[in-house]
Design a protein that fits this description.
heterodimer; A: 291 residues; mainly alpha; MetI-like fold; 0% strand; B: 339 residues; 2 domains; 15 helices; transmembrane (chain B)
Amino acid sequence: MWQRRRSAAVRVWREFTRDRGGLVSLGVLGAVVLLAVLAPVLTDPAGLDVTRADGLPLRPPTWEYPLGTDVDGRSVLLLTLWGTRVSLLVGFAATVLSVLIGTVVGIAAAHLGGWVAAALLRFTDFFLALPSLVLAIALSSVLPRGSATIVLAIAVTSWPATARLVRAQALTVEGRPYIERAKALGGGHLHLVGRHVLPAVLPLVLANTTLVVGNSIIAESTLAFLGLGDPNAVSWGSMLQTALSSGAVSAGAWWYLLPPGLAIVVIVLSFTLVGRALETVLNPRLKGDRD
Amino acid sequence: MTTSVDTAGPAGAGTRRAGTSTLRFLAGKVGAAAVSLAFVVVLGFLLFRMIPGDPVATMTRDRPTSPEQLARLRERLGVDEPMVRQFLDYAGGLLRGDLGTSYIYNRPVSAMIGERLWPTILLVGTATLLAAALGLWLGVRAAWRRGSTFDRAQTGIALTLWSVPQFWLGLLLLTATQGLFPSRGMRSPDIPPDLLGQALDVAHHLVLPCVTLLAVTYAQYMLVMRSSLLEEMGAEYLTTARAKGLRDDLVRARHAVPNALLPTVTLVFLQFGMVVSGTVTVETVFSWPGLGLLTYEALRGPDLPLLQGLFVVLAGAVILMNLVAEVLYRVLDPRVRAS
């Protein structure tokens, strides 16, 4: 059993490496996560403190400050590096929560059937139709400010897409003869879902997860840009908010604007490309459609 | 109705059956939309009245307020009434078009939303028309030359733009075009009041927000148009048309594109939710005086009655647009109607 799983994993990896865009993106993501984890070792967090910043405000890049300084004279390079931590952490946490809710609802809707499934489906469609940013704004404005609220707001607005996907995939599994056989042998709901439905759905959930991370990071930066993030943490969105509100944009301070924005684009694009590559490997129907 | 069936025979009976099934379809869709609207109303109440615990404390957390002011605000919002009573007041007000009173501006929320509606419709309408036109055109080109450099470049650009946060794109455009276009608002104060001058001034202000919104929304049209045309391209009627000696671009324009157009037309309405989200950030960046900027202003307070009104109106609009998309799809596509 384990040997079979391992050989399947090796096959997936071999096919994945054939997609050059996906492989490069995976490398980029690994490097960024490493930088984010090592930020406290590589740099001195004292540079983030407004009162202890030693640079001149809004200066273009120099040797001392390779990406220039912000309105408070802090190094933009340092801010961007530390922003990675908040953006990735919130993005990952929101994704885990969102995928968890989506998978549970999706499998329940496919497995239970009857009026429960109909109600769950109706509920999912309702949340899918709601304008997600407006709902996220509403949630983060009534709950206490902070990263936990942002995580919750993103998860509550992004789970329905996963739920639809998981339900569709689980339904195709539910109709197969081996499920009927397991049922006839007296397998309970937990056994059926845990041993048969979930393993068949998980690969697709994994591919979907990488796409959700990208969306979550954009959502995090958007909410932070609107001033709804943790006021004490530096994130890419909050840097861009300061850039607009402090007049750095109208002063043409491109060095303040480009690093956080490019960081978002690179990370999100990498997650999207990895997700697409995984999808192609795991979903044979897409083969030949994406070349 | 009965007489026409009697005289028309089997054909008439067929139309009648089609008629009742269309009616049942319409009733079902309208009913579902009504249930969704009711959900939105309840959710609006839950979010802004029940989750905050004490809405007055939430709204005044960042400013000094005297006990008398607090008491007056509590009374005006009715937060000390029982929850059921509060909900009935709120729902009854909604039915009469009363969305409550803004806490910061001290004005009826419905009047404020009414004022800000038109700038948003102008911005969203222009951007959507341009995005649909550009997306369809590029999508047709990409699908017809599938696998070509043009196709790959288009898909690459679309994926990249998909990864770009809208507000950042807006900020970049602002910095890159320093002074070429007005950076904020919808009108300049010193423009003569003649119609042409005013219109040109508004159009000048419209350029940057419109381009920003366009850049992030056209990709969806392009990708859907591309895949729906790719599906049509294997169809046999195209081979027939070619066998009859029709030129390649005529086959495309007269046969393939009209059939592939249907999913994209409904996309205009289905995408509305995403566009609404987009207006919040784009209007914030460019200070465009629409509903998105109003949301941002309400957020600063936070002005809970105003946010509540905006939430109900925006979510309600999205539900209506989805309904329009579903009905339109059936009206436009005879294949869906028959099945």
